[in-house]
């Protein structure tokens, strides 16, 4: 249950952000991977051609989302029921590199400079395997990328041993079903507006307006992927465009609409709780990452810097509250 958006400043610079929901408590950390670092993936080892920064699980040299030194940004999102993975042996027999579902974004940031190189390399070089996985299984995932050109690309492993690839002109991303379905579904909501509808006279009756914000009446408010895609698309579409210094702030304002408190979404017989574990935002131009976590709403920041080996950085989870000062 994740939601991703891209926004552009008035200067034309790209920014990207996402919420990360899961039904398992994970310990997250910032991670910087240098050029030439060894990535010990669960199925295939390789070396990084690009340095990158992102959100990792503590002790694991893999990112859930991140940005590299060329300004390519991307994230991994849950893609249940539609992913079509194949065994490692089948992938290697085709002369490709086998990756577990959650490892693909790390591979892309380590190997590609922009979305066009992602498009070119994925069909030729890699496939997602049903084997392996950082958590003991290859998670059902699909992926979105954004680069400095402003282009966004969706990569979905919905074909056994291969991918379906889409340009993403709306700059929004969630979960299943497939991306093209979500874009078509927007046709049902083209009547949404940022304008307040005025009252009108019907017969002899004066019918008053239902209130502020009624131009968005009918926008879906639940947490299904279909509803979140629509809501994210129109919230960022109607939001005022801002300058660079306010762009990250805008991402957090929009994504706050998708924050899931613990206990609101419960799944399965074991009553697993889905909640928003973190929200991240990326400045692609300056290769900087911003994040707040469930228990600490203070935004924490990390910039891509030169390191000699893979380096993890602490994300403070205890709430930080600033004391007011006298004016």
Number of domains: 1
Q: What low-confidence regions span 5 or more consecutive residues with pLDDT below 50?
A: none
Order of helices and strands: EEEEEEEEHEHHEEEEEHEEHHEEEEE
Average residue pLDDT? 95
How many strands, what sense, and barrel or not for the largest sheet?
8 strands, antiparallel
Rg for CA atoms = 21 Å
**Relative helix content:** 10-25%
CATH fold node name: Penicillin V Acylase, Chain A
For the biggest β-sheet, the strand order reads: 13-12-11-8-7-6-3-21
Which descriptor suits the 3D outline? globular
- The separation of the N and C termini measures 42 Å
Beta-strand content estimate: 25-35%
CATH 2nd-level architecture: 4-Layer Sandwich
CATH class annotation: Alpha Beta
Structural class: alpha+beta
CATH superfamily: Penicillin V Acylase, Chain A
Protein name: Choloylglycine hydrolase/NAAA C-terminal domain-containing protein
Pfam family, one: CBAH
Organism: Listeria floridensis FSL S10-1187
Keywords: Hydrolase
């Amino acid at each position: 249950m994740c939601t991703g958006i891209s926004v552009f400043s008035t200067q034309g610079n790209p920014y990207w952000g996402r919420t990360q929901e899961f039904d398992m408590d994970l310990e997250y950390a910032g991670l910087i991977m240098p050029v030439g670092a060894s990535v010990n993936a669960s199925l295939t080892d390789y070396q990084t051609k690009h340095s990158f920064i992102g959100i990792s699980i503590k002790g694991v040299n893999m990112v859930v989302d991140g940005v590299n030194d060329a300004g390519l940004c991307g994230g991994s999102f849950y893609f249940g029921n539609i992913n079509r993975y194949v065994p490692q042996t089948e992938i290697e027999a085709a002369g490709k590199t086998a990756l577990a579902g959650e490892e693909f974004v790390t591979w892309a940031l380590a190997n590609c400079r922009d979305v066009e190189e992602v498009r070119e390399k994925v069909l030729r070089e890699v496939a997602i395997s049903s084997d392996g996985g950082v958590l003991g299984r290859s998670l059902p995932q699909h992926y979105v990328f954004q680069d400095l050109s402003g282009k966004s690309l969706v990569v979905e492993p919905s074909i056994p041993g291969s991918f379906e690839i889409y340009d993403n002109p709306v700059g929004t991303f969630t979960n299943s079903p497939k991306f093209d379905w979500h874009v078509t579904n927007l046709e049902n909501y083209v009547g949404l507006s940022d304008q307040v509808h005025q009252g009108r006279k019907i017969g002899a009756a004066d019918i008053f307006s239902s209130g502020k914000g009624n131009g968005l009446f009918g926008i879906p408010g639940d947490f299904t992927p279909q509803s979140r895609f629509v809501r994210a698309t129109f919230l960022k579409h109607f939001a005022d465009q801002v300058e660079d210094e306010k762009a990250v702030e805008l991402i957090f304002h929009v994504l706050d609409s998708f924050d899931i408190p613990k206990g609101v979404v419960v799944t399965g017989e074991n009553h697993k709780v889905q909640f928003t574990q973190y929200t991240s935002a990326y400045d692609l131009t300056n290769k900087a990452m911003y994040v707040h976590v469930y228990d600490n709403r203070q935004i924490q920041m990390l910039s891509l810097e030169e390191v000699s080996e893979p380096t993890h950085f602490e994300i403070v989870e205890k709430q930080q509250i600033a004391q007011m000062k006298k004016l």
